[in-house]
Specification:
Layout lengths: L1 E6 L2 E6 L3 E5 L8 E4 L2 E4 L2 E2 L8 E11 L3 E7 L4 E7 L2 E11 L2
Antiparallel strand pairs: 1-2, 1-5, 3-10, 4-7, 5-6, 7-10, 8-9
Length: about 100
């Protein structure tokens, strides 16, 4: 059984036992999180959400993702800017997909 959840403005297809890399959640390591915004559940699709469906998970780790290099250049203008960015992420292990 799988579900499509919405978290941090993005959609993720998850199933029980999956480890998902989400945008930073305000939960401590080892705590349980519940996602109530379920968009799809197997072959059922919500309009826009499925009423009564939820996904439970456990926070494994709060971390930072790999560095992304942002390089801007305008040719023949001697304009070059190099910046780096590391996004904060949360690793969540999906424990249960609860449907109606």
């Amino acid at each position: 059984m799988y579900a499509v959840i919405k978290s941090g403005g993005k959609q993720y297809k998850v199933a029980a036992g999956d480890v998902v890399k989400l945008e930073k959640l305000s939960a401590e390591e080892g705590k349980e999180v519940i996602f109530n915004e379920v968009l799809a559940l197997d072959d059922k699709y919500g309009t826009p959400l499925i009423a009564g469906a939820s996904v439970k998970g456990t926070v494994l780790k709060q971390a930072r993702d790999a560095k992304v290099i942002v390089f801007k250049k305008k040719r023949r203008q001697n304009y070059r800017r190099k910046n780096g960015h590391r996004q904060s992420i949360t690793l969540v292990k999906i424990t249960e997909v609860c449907g109606k």
